[in-house]
Amino acid sequence: MPSEFEQAFEKARAKEVDLYVQEVSLMRQLIRERSTALDLLRELISNAAAREVQAENIWIRCYPHPEDVYVFEVEDDGIGMDYADKPPACHYARLYRFLSLGLSAVVGAKSDEFSWKGLGSKLAFHSRRLVVETWTGQGPVRRVEVIAPWDTITAGRKPKPKVFELDPTPSHHRGTKITVYGHPPDVQREYSMREIKDHLLHRTFVGFTRDRSSPPKIHLAVGGMKEDLEFGFPVLKRMGGDPGESTRFVNLVETTGLSGKNFPMTVTLKGLYSVEASRFGIAPESGNSGLILSVMGIPYFDLNFEQYTRGRRGLGINPSARNCCLIVECDQIQEEMNISRSAINDGAVKEAFDTAVQKLLARVSESEDYKAFVAHTKRQKDIRGAETLDQRKRKLAQPEQRWVYYTGPDGKLRRLHREPENENDTLAVLWKMEAMGVLPFHQFESLEHGSSGADIIAHFRETPESNPERFVTVEAESAFSNYKPHGHNPSQMPLVICWDLSKSRKVRLRETNTPWKFVAEVGDVGVRVFAIARMPGIKVSRENV
Prior knowledge:
- By secondary structure, the protein is α+β, with helices and mostly antiparallel strands.
- It has 3 domains: about 5-230, Histidine kinase-like ATPase, C-terminal domain (Heat Shock Protein 90), CATH 3.30.565.10; about 235-370, Ribosomal Protein S5, domain 2 (2-Layer Sandwich), CATH 3.30.230; about 405-540, no CATH class.
- Helix content is about 25%, strand content about 30%.
- It is elongated and about 105 Å long.
């Protein structure tokens, strides 16, 4: 049921606005260049957080909708949007500029702190419905409705917003609320609190990467969950005090000249690298690992850490991207970003930027601090390796350890290996038996072992009467239970050698006259399965003889 506020607007006289719209097909293409649907939140929050708006609070609400799938809503208590519908005054009126589908400052209109391309309003038009409610503290309260903006644009027509004006009441407060229904209009999905929160803290103004005086308070609601978010990039806020030997903090600056420009480019690298990434909340799924570009304090996208280090270890940076959170700040790169702010366009400025970033990473890798870090992590790795080896030795020395033995025709007992617990153990027993010449086959000659696909390629002949099989593929298993889950084609891998059969088999096995041979019926193909544990001379015992 509409609120009293909405009912009042329904009774108000609406004025249809003829907007300034650049070429509709161009706008349609630019809007489609967004990286993710959550880019909309980034841009709307940037608009609300600009110093010109003077907001003290920003409310972000995300919730499902029965007709429009999902709703994104951003509200602030700033100065509101003034309005005029005739030139030249309209070119300076904030509401008219928001609704117009031009390129904002690119076409000459003055822009706020973060919104030089007017991307927020364009993304808002990529929806099923758009509603703007605003009041400057003077004059009428205005409500703007745009019905089916994206359908209108894709049809090659200009959207026609309706502006309702109403006298303010004591309950009205200054500010702006933008509600976007069904963005994007052709996608049906909802978001969790975790998804929205991670995006806000690591890809929007909420995760600001610099000091900022008197930032607005951020209030988030996703569905029925509410939380006030702490302002600032979380990893940077955790940097303080002694990081310990397993972590190093970074704060470096590189300044370079730009050809044809009368100002230098300043690039700052700050953050940390660590073998205790989780201690600082670093996780790839949260969007806070690797190398992240920040412009005007807003983190935008991942720069691809390995690209700037020429491979993971190319410049000596040992921790992989998942163990680093390094922020690259550079304001001069802003005009080189693409429309969706998801990449940097090629050119001389990008080349200078890339060179500066590579120099900064080289300075990190050549520092004494980094060399001490590498020495410490290597020492810790050696310690962990020694501890793991000791644990393995202790396990083998336990009285309950089970061993595989082979008794030959001469009655001599030979220990082969511990009882297999995995595929590698099975291969070890198989190859020992092959080397001893005790496999119950006329011929088995291993030729190759692969890390993926077929485990072994071999020459195989089961009995003297059997047809020789050259370069046959063999799959090795610890306990055979099934075949299809491995993704193998039975016609390509007709042999399986396992330690034994699983008690919970999921494929039909047919016994043969040979106790250690079975036939697995996989579709219309019979796969031969040989169980080492059932071969002659093999036994398992806890006795360590």
